[in-house]
Specification:
The chain is mainly α and 165 residues long. The protein folds into two domains: 14-72; 83-162, no CATH class. The protein has six helices and no strands. The protein has helices spanning 14-35, 50-72, 83-103, 105-119, 125-146, 155-162.
């Protein structure tokens, strides 16, 4: 069976049923947690609960759509897993976690970007790490300076914003 052809087995797609159940469970938890929020009367119409309800509704709709597709066996056959790219992405996440407090947001996220690009078969690390650091610094600058959010600062951020390490 080709990778793009629908899966016409007799039973519903078990993996898709599990995914539909997980999506439904997440939607239920979001609905329940949002309903437990205490909102001041001033904010009851349009307040902090609106967006979680929208997200939960979207997840519920995705769950129903996934369930219907699973029962109709409308998903194409899945290809075999390739663990090399998965390992690169996991290594990038671990590297980001380990580097975040010491190297700062830009360098840690730049390494994550490069490892993920490597997992997708793009560019050598010596080329993608600097590209990732530049993009991550732009994100850090927009969030830390523009929105006044607290993101981890490292030597790169201190050098470019204050001129000192």
């Amino acid at each position: 069976m080709s990778a793009g052809a629908p899966n016409h087995t007799r039973r519903p797609d078990g993996a898709a049923l599990v995914i539909a159940a997980i999506l439904a469970a997440i939607a239920i938890v979001i609905f329940w947690q949002t309903s437990q929020m205490r909102v001041p009367p001033v904010q009851q119409r349009v307040g902090p609960t609106v967006f979680p309800y929208i997200v939960a509704t979207g997840l519920a709709l995705l769950s129903v759509g996934t369930l219907i597709s699973a029962l109709r066996r409308g998903f194409p056959a899945r290809s075999k897993d390739d663990y090399g790219p998965i390992a690169w992405i996991i290594a990038g996440l671990v590297a980001q976690i380990l580097l975040l407090s010491s190297a700062g947001f830009s360098i840690a996220t730049g390494v994550l970007f490069a490892f993920t690009a490597k997992g997708f078969g793009r560019g050598p690390l010596w080329q993608t790490i600097p590209i990732g650091i530049v993009f991550a610094f732009i994100v850090w600058f927009l969030f830390a300076r523009g929105l006044q959010l607290s993101l981890p600062r490292g030597p790169f951020e201190r050098l470019l914003t204050t001129g000192a390490f």
